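Note to self: user wants both folds in one dump. Writing first protein now.
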Amino acid sequence: DKPCSVLTIQIRGDIHPYLVSESYDKDGNLVVDGTSSEDILSVLRKSEDYPNIKAILAVVDSYGGEVSARSEINGYLKQSNKPVIALIRSAGASSAYYAISSSKKVFASELSSVGGIGVTQSFVSRTKKNEKEGLTFVEVNSGKYKDTFNPDKPVTSDDLRYVREGIKVAFDKFVKDVASDRKLPLDKVLA
């Protein structure tokens, strides 16, 4: 019996750059439905020391997560000298799809949720509740947008413009990278 020559990585649940220590049990096993790019990259880097590993299989079941985490995974897989194959189980959407878009092949069931190319940034505003309770927000900070996501701060049109600009930058990069990775025209990715 030869050892398996394919490294399997799991991309499940919400994707984050790292997971807090409470996400693991005392033996280091993950106890939440999530993935960290930090853990994925650690496994991938260690695999470089094993020449018997000939390929990487990314098994995906995720609706996405954070922008930086998806970019880290995608970047590593893109530069890997080993072929990468992705298998999407029930979902490979948004950041999860971006993370594996540079795979040589992507397999999915016709019932899998695939793609979901878009970027979102949402936050809650408690300003009306605070008004009812007689609370007033006092802003003291060192940067114009430092308190943009503070739920107690009234949202200004300038705040929304700032957030929309960030979303557009992330979305444009998302579309461009997926188009390049999958060798598709931009209009096909945007469809």
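First done. Writing the second protein, which came from a different request thread.
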Amino acid sequence: ILLFILFVVLFSFSYKKLKESDLKQIVATLRNDPLPVNPMDEVKQQLSEWAKQEQLQSQIDIVKKEDSVSIEIKDKVFFSSGEYELSPVGLNRIKTLAKTLEKLPAKLRLGIEDHTDDIPIHTKQIQDNWDLSAKRALNVLYALELSQELLKRTQVIAQGEMNPLVPNRDKNGNSVPENQNKNRRVTIKVF
């Protein structure tokens, strides 16, 4: 068995796709220990409970990957169309989300992203979609009122219209309103 464990350890160093969590599962299996819990499973569960509590299941998508959990929140959950100030309902929802995010294990990081559609915007307060996206992402950050410890592990990213989930326009260049609706979102990523 020791020779096998040595082989697994050496293999893990040479094979870049093998993650620390994989190695922990292998060791636990060999020792007949309970399998370690993936922290991302716990994060997904906590975010799912928040969404259920806030009755947002139809307005968000929670996606767990190997090393991250993303929650895609439709922009209308927090903002009115073309606005960067949080709606009163959105502000309350963010306050409850903050309680969930503060429970993140110390080794995990937090990302706050805002995405817009490609419809041009220009007002006295908003220069363009980049500006709208940046202001929204920052307002989400400020409203969360995170602890200093979590703030040190937090990133804010304005994506503007540059990272759509689906094309904003069809092959002929015509806007596709249902796709534009999908692309207007706030993403909170735990990684």
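Dump finished. Worth passing along: The chain has a mean pLDDT of 91.
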